[in-house]
Predict the structure.
Amino acid sequence: MASINVRKETGKLYFDFKFRNQRCREQTTLKDTAVNRKKLEKVLERIQAEIMLGSFDYARTFPNSRLIKKFEEIERKTLIANGATEIPSFEKYANIWFEQTKVQWRDSYTDTVHYILFKRLIPQFGDVKISNIKKMDLLEFRAGLAKVTKKNGIGLSPSHINRHMKIMRMILIEASDNYEFTSPYRGIKPLKVPKSDIQPFTPEEINLILNNVRDDFVPYFTIRFFTGMRTGEIDGLKWKHIDLDNRRIQIRETIVKGEVSYTKNDFSQRDIQMSEPVYQAFIQMKSSTGDQEFVFVNKNGNPLEHNAVTKRVWYPLLDSLGIRRRNPYQMRHTAATLWLASGESPEWIANQMGHANTEMLFRVYSRYVPNLTRQDGSAADKMLSNVMEGTTNA
């Protein structure tokens, strides 16, 4: 019977199950805790289900296992005994691929892939034997996507079309490796994506917004303007990650579709240095939500829902002030441009933003880069304090 066990000599958990009449023990790096056992039990349930369905891929699940070659040899002998390998239809293979691969993704990305796969790719290629799909078929499919219009009458963006094609490419490359045919995706380049146009707010606009927004949202927008946090990061911000003594915000989690999860990537795990306006905003919030889990909550005590804030607070405020509508994400761009204007080091800014390096900083904000001399956040602190003087004096 399949189980999760622990090696006494290391204290680490391992999988213990049977596959093709072979007993398999696969070591993990996780310590023996209730939380880790629960995680591995879920994985083991998936493994058992895939074994029953005949879709379990040992090499994908345990890529470093010494048993892979053994099972490959068993598979080869089985194929020889049963005759030629039958190459499946795109739909059959795509279903197996999705079930095996989704364990690697966060829920929001799984939903995206599921929609693209079952609403677009399978309806187009479902009955076709996967090895019979040609390059021309892929190009025709892409051309068809370019003609699709959404409910608002706007067509699919190049980046969204590329996302469809990327999923198709992953499926075809893996299938070609498994069934030894040449992937038809070779030589297809992604569509050119227009450079994103950032629209940061000016200090005058920031003052106008912070002087006129509802009192309970002043700290929220102050922190967004002056920290560069992503929407999911600030909405999912917990008090346990706020270090007021050292004036640091620890970005460790994000909230996506109401679910708290890991940040966008490893580089997004960072500590943001609080400027004086940000520090004062947290002090103000501490008095109102300091006894709750999340820093920013709605009237029911739940984390803020960004769509509700955008529609009910943000856009009505901009409209009333005569400020051109920009989505709230532009507050993140505003923080970056303010830091650049203050002369802070690109490395320091990239770290505050959660970028892997300065490449994106120069690519996205190139026209805002002046002579850069400082590297410790002091220049930014001075500039943001000056910006806030306009708020307090208004």
Q: What stands out?
A: The radius of gyration is 26 Å. The first helix runs from residue 34 to 53. The mean pLDDT is 88.
